Every structure is written in structure tokens, then in C-alpha cells.
Amino acid sequence: MNIRQWLLADGEFFTEADVKTAAKVCILGKTVVDNLFPETSPIDQTIRIRNVPFKVLGVLTKKGQNAMGMDQDDVIIAPYTTVLKRLSHFPFLRQILVSATSPNSMILAQSQISDLLRIRHKLLANEADDFTIRSQTDIANMATATTQILTILLASIASVSLIVGGIGIMNIMLVSVTERTREIGIRMSVGARGRDILTQFLIEALVLSILGGIVGIILGVSGSTVISKIANWPTIITPFSIILSFGFSFAIGIFFGYYPARKAAMLNPIDALRYE
Fold it and tell me: Are 104 and 17 part of one and the same domain?
């Protein structure tokens, strides 16, 4: 209770005597209470866990979701001796929560716990640990690494999509240059310079890219809204993300539109006028 900072909203916690005798008593989380006793007090009521009757001694205060999105109130707490003997029938504990006296003493605490468990498990010096010790720092590092991997994965998928879209724009512009070769020759013959042709086709490529970006932003915002309502996932759409999307659209249009535009600008006016 102290380590997890669980407080009682009602009732009382089980005692050391309950632990020693493997008493069939339990404490309920708020979600469990709402499901089983929506309109009455659960104190001194009886619930059945795997056909074993348990007396409800107390109710925990509401804590909400944790950092991983799990409901911390969907929990039932019972003496570990009761769980081992009457429910799980395992001869050992699967998990033990330990709190160090201060952040600076975490490494020392891990070392002492490791030494104690090796003695209790009667492991020889050359034998590997048959247990795992993880600190909050280790868990945080694992979560950070997972987030980084997902970020890289999503960025890779987005990069492939951008490249495919850019190649599509370049192909369209190359076809446009080929189909309008005679038009380009006429423009050059009446005084258009190479940079004028380059600017014209770059603008057309930018228009295509930005229109695609606008459609993508609309679909992204709509999809986020629908997912938020259907799956109850909180979504945040910031102005910076929209501006960044426009920036990428602009950059893709410039990058993939430059080659077709330059190809158009480098055409020989005489050859362009002869083109059929």
C-alpha cells in the first residue's frame, strides 16, 4: 500500500493475522466496485473469485490510468498467502515490489536484493540468476526505447509515402512537359526565357503537391476525430503539425518538380517547335 501509494476510500486493510492465516478477505478497486456494487456499499459483502468466497474489507481510492494506459482501479488485493494457497496454487511469488529509501540508494538496494535472493534460492557462485530485478529507471528506458523504435518505424513509413508521392508528381510533370513541348517552343520563340519556363513548371508541381498536402491534412484530422470518438483515444492536433505538413508538401513539390521543370527550360526552341 505504501509503495504503490494506495489509499483506502472506505473500510479497512487486512492485518498480519489475515496474511498468516491466509484469510479469505480482499480490497476492491473503484472500477470493480462500480461493476459489482454500483448502488450499494461493498463493505462486508462477499464476492467469489474462482468459486472461492472472499469478504470485502475495504475500497481503494480512485487512481485512474497509469502511464501505459492501464486502469489502476480494475484491481482486487488479497493477502499473498491466500492467493498462493487458494487461487494460483503456485509455490512461489511471481513479483515483489520493493521501494528504496532514496533515489541514490537504488543501485545498492538492487545489489542487496540480488544477494539475498541468490542465498534464498541456494544458487552457486557459477550459476546464473533465476530471477529478474528491474528498477523504474530500467522500465523507463525500455519505454523510451520502444517509443523511439515506433517513431523510427512511423517516420520510415511516412518517408516511403512521401517518396512515392514525389515520384508520382515528377512523372506527371514529365508527361506534361512531353505533351506541351510545342507550347514551350512557342513561348520561347516569342521571348520567354528559360527561367520563365522553369518557374512555370515549378509552380505547377507546387500546386499539385500542396493540393495533395491539403487533402492529406483533411483526411488526417478527420481520421483522428473518428478514432478519438470510436476508440476513446485522446488525440491532439497542433498548429505546428499542420504547418509542418504544408512545409513537407512544399519541399516535395520543389524537390521532385525541379527536374521536369529544368528539362522543360533546357529545351531547344527550334526542336520544340518541330515536335509533333
Answer: no
**Which residues, in sequence order, are CB contacts of 66 under 8 Å at separation 6+?**
72
pTM over 0.90: no
Give the range of the structural domain holding residue 171, as residue numbers without chain letter.
162-274
- Quick one: 74 and 113 in the same domain? no
19 and 113 part of one domain: no
CA distance 247 to 234: 26
Compute the distance between CA of residue 80 and CA of residue 14 in angstroms, rounded to an integer. 11
Number of domains, the chain:
3
213-245 pLDDT, tens digit per residue, is 899 889 988 988 888 888 777 788 888 888 888
Domain identity same for 167 and 266: yes
Residue 148: inside a domain: no
137-193 pLDDT, tens digit each: 888 888 888 889 999 998 899 889 889 888 988 998 888 888 888 888 888 888 888
Q: Is 153 inside any structural domain?
A: no
